[in-house]
Write a structure and sequence with these properties.
Elements (H helix, E strand, L loop, with lengths): L1 H17 L3 E3 L6 H18 L1 H4 L5 H40 L10 E3 L5 H23 L29 H11 L7 E6 L6 H9 L2 H4 L4 E6 L6 H12 L5 H6 L4 H12 L4 E8 L2 H9 L9 E6 L2 H7 L4 E3 L5 H13 L7 H13 L4 H11 L6 H9 L4 H19 L3 H10 L10 H11 L4 H9 L4 H13 L4 E2 L6 E2 L2 H14 L3 E3 L16 E4 L8 H8 L6 E4 L20 E9 L14 E6 L15 E5 L12 E2 L12 E4 L2 E2 L15 E5 L6 H4 L7 E6 L23 E6 L24 E5 L3 E2 L4 H4 L6 E5 L3 E2 L2 E4 L9 E5 L5 E4 L10 E5 L17 E5 L3 H18 L7 E5 L3
Parallel strand pairs: 1-2, 3-6, 3-7, 4-5, 5-6, 10-11, 11-12, 12-13, 13-14, 14-15, 15-17, 16-18, 17-19, 19-20, 20-21, 21-22, 22-24, 23-25, 24-27, 26-28, 27-29, 29-30, 30-31
Antiparallel strand pairs: 8-9
């Protein structure tokens, strides 16, 4: 968390040095701020050393040192933030008093840092000492203390005659087939999945299976973990390969890596072996070990278990098995077995509650087993089981997660430094909350959690995607967050959600208010930096209002509870240090004018249907502005809403989403949004040349169009996008398309798109397939979605050399009947294909290249399903043994 805290301070100081709205008074030692900034960057660099040394560190000592850094950073922020805020507010008030038509506001704040020079000097000195101590600890770890605390083991051992673990029978058979295949080449199989999902259990069952054991002359099982010494691993392998080896001799004689590596290789040479590398965390370690296992074409096998996708990929992409979560039936079977055993009966009433309890464990075997262990030690009454079943916050689950913490915590503790704060931040949202990727990226950036190096890379190059999706993808690849295939959002398993909230409270990252009791002084609400309101009704209770208002150190207010349609006070006048305000779950009938006093605000998200005031431009520090309209208020077509003309003065804006509101035409030569990267929720009026040329760095544009019932004139929203030379993502949705099956002249004709485009989403346009030529030749296009009659017509033929870079194609609700390729050179690098609700589709191509990884068919014509099945059969036959097997998912109610 120290890295995230340093990032927050870095962003504050960076704004001081780089904002066009701030001028540091020259006689107030401005150099000290530059020195401070340099020191923060140096501190972050030191913290990143953790990523290189984590396999050998004393984690308890490192966390203790980081906690001291966080405390020092918070203490310094509590000096500099109020100092800056007081100067901003006092100058703002003076400007308001003097403002007239002849004397417009200057919008430049003079900052005097002389008063805090001593604090800055002291902080730099403190950070230097802490940084040196931290680096010394990483390179010279303190001795470990014995830890005798009880904890749940992540490895569930089988007795000799015990059946295969519930839910893993099919996977067991698949891996058994890999291990026992007639292929004489060495085969590497990887098991990857979340902590506690059964990877080690399955690998031990395979390792002890008599039929598998009989195939090999040597068996080795090595458990590694996040903290290891390579020499110890090699000695462990040697002693299992040849029990006659004298470990004492090894320690005294060839206890050097080069000698041990040579001995491992030579001892395995010409032997048929099965080696299990259990719980591997580091890709470098995995690569080193695999190089030591000779391939003598004698059927040897290596089984790797890991929480890390990158480790599984390193082993060999062909044979990766991602362990799935248990379904509802499997979860209940496991819970019942662990609570009642094979002999004790379970009544029908208990079974009904028990199934709900098992479902609440969300498919994770370790949670189910731990909950079952707790339930087995108390009276099995229907009243108690119903209480547990009806409340996912019941103490049974909390106790289970607490017992599981030592299994789960390494997944957090050993994350890359730049990911830790983002991961914990997800826990600020309600349990099982589906979090949009861009929402997390925007909030994390506004908070200062995003790695500054990646942010600069993202802004100055064409790599828009990493900032939006990279952090989520990295967390998903470490199996600490989950992905919802229906909504394409991420979320936390409840066990990790509990961990995030526990760790966030310990590090003061955020404080969650779930009920009235959480606002009491003894609960520690004072001095919290981020408040997370999970019950919006709390805001209307006076003593809660007073308690929160008294916490003048709040930097972020996140209203993440269920939607609240009644107005509630936000007491913003007391939260002068606020940088982030997310209140999308509260409906505002009037614009909260007190927001305009929050001059340090970087992120503002509101649910409001009216016009924004012209004074919105007073929020000169704002980078993210999101104003959503309440869906029950339907704007009449033709009644256009525009943002105030003063929006062009908000030079710091990076992200602007204003549902149903258009950008006004700039009225003067100097109008410019020089830092705006993403614009969304606007209509065709915002796509005029005079508007787009004032947003030169735009990388993502989303257009929403509502057609008039009698609309006949073509709209020109694409005529000028070709001038956006940095545009990477373009989305266009006609919200009320004309549902005609025949091909007609489209109201939104396709024009030339910028060559920089990498992602394109079209919905409701009704273009003829011939217009696809405007898209198919784009050299950088990797992602294409066609939805809701985006194109019309019965036949689409992909021509020679079209879509040469396309990786993902989604076709949904299109009246297409026949889809063909002119030859096998079409879509040569496509990896994913998703076809949904195409009821007329009878034919799909069968000549995709070998890059294809997955096909998903949802509620389509049975003839299209047959084509997909045939495609998989032919693909698997053609590439079997050389490439990953093609994944085919079919969902149909027919």
């Amino acid at each position: 968390m120290a890295y995230g805290a340093a990032g927050c301070l870095e962003l504050t100081i960076e704004r001081l040095l780089k904002s066009s709205y701030i001028s540091i008074v020259q006689n107030s030692s401005p150099q000290i701020i530059k020195l401070l900034y340099k020191e923060i960057l140096s501190l972050k660099e030191a913290l990143r050393e953790f990523d290189k040394k984590r396999s050998t560190i004393n984690m308890k000592m490192v966390k203790s040192l980081e906690a001291e850094m966080v405390e020092a950073i918070y203490k310094f922020e509590d000096v500099i933030d109020p100092h800056l805020s007081n100067q901003f507010h006092s100058q703002s008030e003076e400007e308001e008093e003097e403002e007239t038509a002849d004397h417009p506001p200057s919008m430049v704040f003079s900052v005097d840092v002389q008063e805090i020079k001593q604090d800055v000097d002291s902080f730099i000195e403190t950070m230097n000492k802490m940084k040196r101590a931290y680096i010394h600890e990483l390179h010279n770890p303190s001795p470990e203390e014995d830890d005798d605390d009880d904890f749940v083991a992540s490895k569930t051992h089988f007795r000799g005659n015990e059946p295969i673990m519930v839910g893993l029978s099919d996977i067991f058979m698949s891996i058994e087939n890999w291990l026992n295949s007639s292929n004489s080449e060495r085969i590497i199989v990887s098991l990857v999945g979340m902590a506690g999902i059964g990877k080690t259990t399955l690998s031990k069952k395979l390792f002890h299976d008599p039929f598998i054991v009989s195939c090999y002359s040597r068996l080795v099982f090595v458990t590694i973990g996040p903290k290891y010494r390579l020499a110890d691993i090699l000695v462990d392998i040697l002693t299992q390969v040849n029990p006659d080896f004298d470990e004492i001799m090894l320690m005294k004689g060839e206890k050097v890596l080069a000698g041990l590596k040579r001995m491992v290789y030579e001892s395995l040479k010409y032997l048929s072996y099965l080696i299990v590398l259990d719980d591997v965390w580091e890709i470098d370690l995995c690569s080193v070990l695999l190089e030591l296992f000779p391939d003598d074409k004698n059927g040897s096998r290596v089984l790797v278990t890991t929480r890390m996708k990158k480790v599984a990929d390193c082993a060999k992409p062909l044979n990766i098995c991602k362990i799935p979560f248990l379904d509802k039936k499997e979860s209940w079977d496991l819970l019942r077995e662990k609570v009642f055993g094979e002999e004790e009966p379970c009544s029908y009433r208990l079974e009904k509650a028990g199934k709900k309890i098992a479902e609440n464990c969300e498919g994770l075997p370790l949670t189910i087993i731990t909950v079952a262990n707790i339930l087995s030690k108390v009276d099995k009454t229907i009243e108690y089981w119903n209480e547990v079943a009806d409340d996912k916050q019941n103490s049974v689950y909390k106790d289970a997660y607490e017992q599981m913490s030592k299994v789960l915590y390494p997944s957090y503790d050993y994350l890359d430094q730049h990911l830790k704060a983002c991961f914990l931040y997800i826990g600020a949202f309600p349990q099982n909350y589906l979090l949009d990727q861009s929402q997390l990226a925007n909030l994390s950036s506004a908070e200062g959690f995003l790695n500054s190096e990646s942010v600069h890379y993202y802004e100055e190059t064409m790599d828009y995607a990493y900032d939006s999706f990279g952090y989520c993808d990295d967390l998903y690849a470490t199996n600490v967050i989950m992905f919802d295939n229906e909504t394409f959002d991420f979320y936390l398993h409840s066990s990790f959600w509990y961990l995030c909230n526990k760790e966030a409270a310990r590090t003061k990252l955020f404080y969650a208010l779930n009920c009235h009791g959480d606002t009491l002084p003894e609960e520690g609400i004072e001095s919290q930096r981020r408040l997370c309101i999970r019950n919006n009704i709390l805001l209307a209770i006076k003593d809660v209002h007073n308690s929160i208002a008294s916490d003048s150190k709040v930097r972020s207010l996140l209203c993440t509870g269920y939607f609240h349609k009644y107005p509630v006070p936000l007491f913003l006048e007391h939260l002068r240090l606020l940088r982030v305000l997310d209140a999308l779950s509260i409906r505002f009938y009037e614009f909260p004018i007190k927001v305009l006093k929050l001059v340090q605000l970087r992120y503002l998200a509101l649910l409001y249907n009216g016009n924004l005031p012209s004074s919105i431009s007073k929020l000169w520090n704002l980078q993210y502005l999101i104003v959503i309209q309440h869906p029950r208020i339907v704007k009449s077509v033709g009644n256009l809403l525009y943002l105030p003309i003063e929006i062009w003065n908000m030079n710091e804006l990076k992200y602007l989403y204003t549902c149903g509101r258009d950008l006004p035409h700039p009225c003067c030569e100097g109008s410019l949004l020089p830092n705006l990267l993403k614009l969304g929720g606007v209509g065709p009026q915002s796509c005029a040349k005079s508007v787009l040329e004032k947003i030169p760095k735009l990388k993502a544009l989303s257009i929403d169009i509502e057609l008039a019932p009698d609309a006949t004139e073509p709209l020109t929203c694409f005529d000028h996008v070709s001038h956006l030379h940095q545009l990477q993502e373009l989305r266009c949705y006609i919200m009320n398309p004309t549902l005609k099956t025949e091909v007609v002249t489209p109201l939104v004709p396709l024009s030339d798109f910028p060559l920089s485009l990498t992602a394109l989403v079209l919905s409701g346009l009704g273009s003829p397939w011939e217009e696809m030529r405007n898209i198919s030749s784009l050299p950088n296009l990797t992602h294409l979605e066609l939805k809701f009659y985006a194109f019309r017509g019965p036949k689409w033929e992909v021509r020679d050399n079209e879509f040469q870079s396309l990786l993902y194609l989604e076709i949904e609700d299109i009246n297409l009947e026949q889809w063909t390729f002119q030859n096998c050179l079409c879509l040569p690098v496509i990896q994913g294909l998703h076809i949904a609700h195409c009821y007329k589709l009878k034919e799909i191509p069968l000549t995709f290249g070998k890059s294809l990884l997955s096909i998903k068919i949802v509620e389509c014509n049975p003839m299209a399903v047959k084509c997909a099945i045939k495609l998989k059969e032919e693909w698997d036959d053609k590439y079997a043994g050389r490439e990953r097997l093609l994944e085919l998912v079919v969902r149909s109610s027919l």
